[in-house]
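Look over this record before class:
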Amino acid sequence: MQRPIKNIWIESEDKGAIIGGTEEINDNSDVIVTFDDKSKYVATFFTYDNIEYLRQKNRQTGECLDGRFFWASDMIIIERINRKEVVEIIEHLIKEKEFESIFDQITE
């Protein structure tokens, strides 16, 4: 897959950090990649700190068996959620031919 990227939409750039999130180190965000051929793919990026934040929250609320597990479809774990990091990871996944294994194609 060597299609040119038309757009990368990062949810947290539009909506801000999630509740309890502190900017780019404790956040999760949907990312939609649109290629020039109009195909779209989505994945959810989580920071390591956000996974721990959610685990502690789930311990208190009882969700996910009191925080004993966590899952998300199309999950990518990253140190910081910012455009530079996200773009670098997407470009790497495309180069290594791993993009379509991780991102899920959106069919409209």
